[in-house]
Structures are given as structure tokens and as C-alpha cells.
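Reopening this one. Same input as before:
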Amino acid sequence: MDDLGRTVSYLRLSITDHCNLRCLYCRPPEQVPYIPHDDILRYEELLVMVDLARELGIGKIRLTGGEPFLRRNFLFLVESILKRHPEVDLRLTTNGTLLPGKAKELKDLGVNNINVSLDSLYPKTFARVTGSDLYAAVRRGMDEVMAAGMRLKVNAVALRGINDGELAGFFEFIRHNPVDFRLIEFMPMGGQTMWSPEYYWSAPDILREAEELADLTVEKRAPGDSGPARMYRVDGSLGRFGVISALSDHFCHSCNRLRVTPDGNLRTCLFSDKQYRLRPILRHPRLGPEMVSRVMRLALRKKPLGYQILQQRKEAGAAIHGMMSAIGG
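Same output, byte for byte:
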């Protein structure tokens, strides 16, 4: 528990900053150097991070990137974590482009929840946002996940002037598919991305438009659910609709997560640039996991309120100076 009384139970573990897409809101148009290979946490080090997270009482771990499927032998890591900690609720976030052909194996390994980032249901808009023509592969991977009986969440960054005309299409999609479709407010993250207030499509505006298209009923939260999404049941639909209002209605007082970057930096708040450098400690011959655990416990206690950081930076433009691909989306 941190000093504000929040129980931290969720770790987002980013295993690579490499990605095969160049989304407008994540990576700048120009090439940016990747993290050097030797600075990326090795698989055995990632397993130690999972061990330490379990010691802290963290039961939910999400593997993310970049694009995690780009890392060689990624499914070996998934298997290793679940063999070591079969009780862990292990989840994946992916852009879906490399998902086809992997759903059954993931299910057999014990993964039951997949998040796919998909900002548009139109191939041309998808290409505009991502810089790629891999829309068909993403949809194929999603279909396979649903066919395997896994829980699928689809996350779309809400972009005014880009995908704000697709709300009716999003509702049509969840009418026929048992998915949670969540629109995430565009956040000012990274000074080199396209962040601008003109692209900001707020959660209140989204919900006003949504209520004109469908009958929505607020979904009651399950006990212990402190996730950021407000979910709605949609009359006559197999799926649910949700919004994540990171800016317009922050959820900092219930935030339950930590992040570890591919190069082994611990971040206790998405909106803070403060990092705790765990990799040098982990690799130090006289320090190692025991000292990493001490640092993690101290960092957890001092976990800040992100909205206060945003308020302090209101005039500064980007809230985060690193790229999301190097932080963990």
C-alpha cells in the first residue's frame, strides 16, 4: 500500500521498445534510436521482476511494448512466467499485427485476456494513423482470439478529426462481437508526437454522442476492480463500450499500477518522468534482487497523484518527455 492508501496490484512490464507501426500519437515521423540491446532486460531478469512483483502482492501482470511479439521467443517468456507463477493473471497488449496464428497457443499456455490497439475500423484511416497497411492482419488476429474463447479488449485512442466519425461503426462492431471496445482520451505524452488540443476528443463529448446512438447502461464495477475504464452495457449488443478519461476525469485516487520499462526503469505514474533505475542494481554483483525489492517498496510508497503533475505542467505542452513505445503502452 502506498502513502495515500492505494493498494498496488498491477504491473505493466514492457519487454521491448521496438514496434512495426509508427502511430501518430506514439512515435514521431523521424527515426528515433531504439534502446541499446545490452540495456534491455534479459528474459531471466524479467522473470526476476515478476518474482519481486509477486512478493509485493501484485497479482496482475501485463506484458506490453512496443510490440511484444517482435521480441524473439516471446511465447517462451509467457510460458516461463506461467510455469513459475501459475496463479498470476497474465495479460498481453499488442497492436495485433503479429497475432494471427498465435491465439490457440496463448490460450493453451494460460493467457485468457488480450488487449489489441485498433484506432479505426477503416483500413485507410488505420493506415493514416499507423503508417501501415496491416489492418487485415489485426482483424484476423482478433477473430482468432475470439474463436479461442479468450477475452478481447479493443483500445482506440480518441482522435478528433481522425476517428471521431466512427462511433456508429464502433457500436455496430460490438453489437456482433463479444468485446470490450474502449475509447481512450488522447493524452499529452511525448514532445515529438502529434499532441495538440485540436485532436482532443473528450470522454464527456464521446458519451454525449454515444447516448444518441445507443441505449447505454453503466456497468457496475466488480469488487476490487479499480481499472480506469467506465464500461457500459449496450442494448442488443454482445460486447460492451467504455471510455478511459485520463484527462477530463482522472482516476489517480484509485490507480493501482506500476510500470517497468524495457531497460529496467520503474515508473510509478504515467504522467511523471521520475524513474527508478532498477537495471544497474539488478546487475550489480553485490546488490541484486534484494536491493531492487527495497527500491520498489520505497517507490511504491511514494507513488504520486498524476493529475497534480499534469496541473503543474499545464503550460508546458507534453506531459511525458519519453515515447510511449519506450515506456510501455
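So the earlier flakiness isn't reproducible anymore. For the record, The longest helix spans residues 288-301.
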